[in-house]
Amino acid sequence: MGANQFMIQAGLRNDNYFDLHLVGIEKAATLYEGAFGVHCDNLLEEIEKTDLILIPALRPDNLMEDLAENAPFIPWILKHRAHSNAEVASMCMGAFILAQTGLVDNKQCSTHWAAMDLFAQLFPQVNLVSNKVVTEEDGIYTSGGAYSFLNLMLHLVEKYCGRGAAVYISKFFEIEFDRDNQNQFAIFQGQKDHEDEAIRQAQLYIEGNVTERISVEALALKFAISRRNFVRRFKKATQNTPLEYIQRVKMEAAKRSLESTQKNVNEVMYQVGYADQKAFRTVFKKYVGLSPIAYKAKYNRSKVSFDRPMAW
Question: Cβ neighbours of residue 170 under 8 Å, at least 6 residues apart?
Answer without folding.
Answer: 154, 176, 177
